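thought: user wants a sequence for this fold. calling inverse folding tool.
action: design(structure=
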């Protein structure tokens, strides 16, 4: 018998960010208020090398009611990965279990 996850993470596709963009927000809202105590978003290369990690107090802001999380991306966090497509895993409800996955293309800005 193969080990399988309790559920499959939701793949929300491909996004991009320019290396000069500041505070590009991603807002997540729940009606149940069941966000984990330690939500985390990790960006990593195909080889599994972590490029950037966001946690509460370090890029993730939890609203006072606990129903909304805002993640603010800065392109400068990804300068070393310019031109790459990074994989991302977001753990929102169960600590350590990926709930959302997506890819992020790092675009070199000409500004």
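)
observation: tool returned 111 residues.
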């Amino acid at each position: 018998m193969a080990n399988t996850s309790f559920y499959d993470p939701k793949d929300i596709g491909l996004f991009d960010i320019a290396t000069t963009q500041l505070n590009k927000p991603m807002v997540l809202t729940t009606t149940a208020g069941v966000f984990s105590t330690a939500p985390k978003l990790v960006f990593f290369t195909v080889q599994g090398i972590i490029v950037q990690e966001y946690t509460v107090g370090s890029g993730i802001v939890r609203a006072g009611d606990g129903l909304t999380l805002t993640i603010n991306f800065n392109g400068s966090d990804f300068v070393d990965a310019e031109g790459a497509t990074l994989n991302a895993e977001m753990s929102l409800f169960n600590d350590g279990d990926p709930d959302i996955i997506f890819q992020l293309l790092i675009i070199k800005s000409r500004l």
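thought: summarizing for user.
answer: Here is the designed sequence. The chain has one domain: 16-107.
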